[in-house]
Amino acid sequence: MGLRDIAIVGTAQRPSEINSTFTSVELLLPIIQEVLTKVGIERQDIGFWCHGSCDYMSGQPFSFVAAVDAIGAWPPIIESHVEADGAFALYEAWVKLQTGEADVALVFSNGKTTSGPINRILNLQTDPYMVAPLWPGFDVLSALQARACLEAGVVTQRQMAEVAWRSQRDGKNNPFTLSGTEMSVDELLSQPLTVDPLRAHDCAIPVDGANAIILAAGDAARRLAKRPAWIRGIDHRIDTQRMGARSMIESSSATIAAQKAGVGKDRIDVAELHAPYTHQELLLRQAMGLSESTHINPSGGALVANPAMAAGLARFAEAAESVFSGSADRVLAHCTSGPLLQQNLVCVMEGE
Amino acid sequence: MSEADGLIRLRLPIAVTYNWSAGPNATSHLAGLLEGKLIGKRCPSCLSVYFPARNGVCPKCAQILAEDVTVGPKGTITTFCIVNVPFLGQKIKLPYVAAQILLDGADISMQHLIQECEAEDVRIGMRVEPVWKDRSEWGPSMENIEHFRPTGEPDQIMGSESGAS
Question: Domain containing A243: what range?
């Protein structure tokens, strides 16, 4: 039996905020209503709901259960949750649609990244015996990775600043992000180091955000969107959690995921990469074999708005929108998770 | 670090501090409590009144609950449990009654303590009213209410009036 054709048919994103006074449920509800309205369907038309979020970010066990209030659970619904970025919820929804048990799925994610010390919270994803108690935090770990890349000649400080400059320039046109500075590459390079060798512009801006995506299979997708973003390949690979046991200057999981998703089969017009640090974008481009002709992160990327647990799904929304609008034909959406690009989810989508 | 028995032990506590926001909906409920008012929220779609207003949305309809509704202060016991088991940190003398109380005008019940009567006299349908702590002890909390006590009114037959759904 072959795979079903499945596409993204609608997206909605909430503009980024700092220190939002809304609860996660209040952040999500309008976005879910917006994506349903855009696609022109009702809650009752959704055959499967899947949510991505992280209880550590709200500091409440089982806080994700409350999010069910935002989608309404009466009459009863079929829903699931991943303790991860919404991009992984999208993967689960894609699998669910493949089983044929549903034709339309709604995927949503949220992250109140600024209500706690995100660098410290994400530290809890590391090995709880040998790494987490040292409280390195993601900025410090990523600085070690950047140092290794610089010393190996895999990236340069200037290339990193160019990534930041381009992301800030493009992010200004994106209503969902927070606008960055207007500094030139040379000015960025003259800024002080925050975590040597990283500068402030090398690290993503944590924001509060929420987003939602509707997936549909076959004829349902053709009915719901003028130009659906058809998923042609999707794959998720994980490197070992032992950071000392893997190379810091490459991402083998990203390479394999890109191969399995079929990235190299044809030209990629737009790639939305979830890279919370500038050097990680450069590593990902190399790992996936993306050429100069690929437009990287026209949205500005996670660097200018990183709602933890929603930033990956935002990449899917941005990539799909470029297919909807006709500005791109073949696009890539990527999500990372864990420290130092430990996990990589790669998806290739095409318009018809 | 201790090496008394030849083993090295490390105590590495993990703590993270958050800025928690109640959100605009729960805020009106909490602000009401500061003034001794019981404020719930009405769903614009199914008209159910929630007290407390949970996450500020109606879980049945997925609608934001916008309208404040003052409920209670009297209510009716919909179910209860007589607690006989002692546990660590217990502040109340055994046996005591934890009851679900449907406040007048609300559509969901909430849990509170029943005092000022024998546990064996508590029953479903019994009318109760709140006994507030001294105002100087009030905060944005349901703990402003010390407990509920019987009003002496005739019992309410559940399910006949406000929807005990």
Answer: 118-205+230-350
Give the Cβ contact number of residue A180 at 10 Å: 22
CA trace torsion A187, A190, A191, A192 (10° rounding): 180
Listed residue (B149, B145, B110, B147) closest to B128, CA to CA: B149
What tens digit of pLDDT does each residue of B106-129 get? 999 999 999 999 999 999 999 999
Query: What residues of chain B lie within 8 A of the CB of A74, using their CB?
Result: 59-61
Hey, what amino acid is at A80? Answer: S
SS3 A190: coil
Q: Cβ of B59 and A58 within 8 Å?
A: no
Spatial separation of the C-alpha atoms in residues A346 and A326, rounded to whole Å: 21
With a threshold of 0.95, tell me whether the complex ipTM lies above it.
Answer: no
Instruction: Give the separation between CA B129 and CA B149, rounded to whole angstroms.
Output: 6
H or E segment and range at residue B23: helix B23-34
Quick: pLDDT tens for B40-77: 999 999 999 999 877 788 888 888 888 999 998 999 99
Distance, in Å, from the CA atom of B126 to the CA atom of B45, rounded to the nearest integer, reads 31
Number of domains in chain A: 2
Q: What residues 111-140 of chain A have any CB closer than 8 A to a CB of chain B?
A: 115-117, 120-121, 124, 132-133
Same domain for A287 and A234: yes
Q: What predicted TM-score, i.e. pTM, was given to this entire model?
A: 0.91
Q: Are residues A225 and A279 in the same domain?
A: no
CA nearest neighbour of A330 among A293, A279, A304, A286: A293
Structure confidence at residue B2 as a pLDDT band (50, 70, 90): low
Q: How many CB pairs under 8 A join A and B?
A: 82
CATH code, domain carrying A266: 3.40.47.10
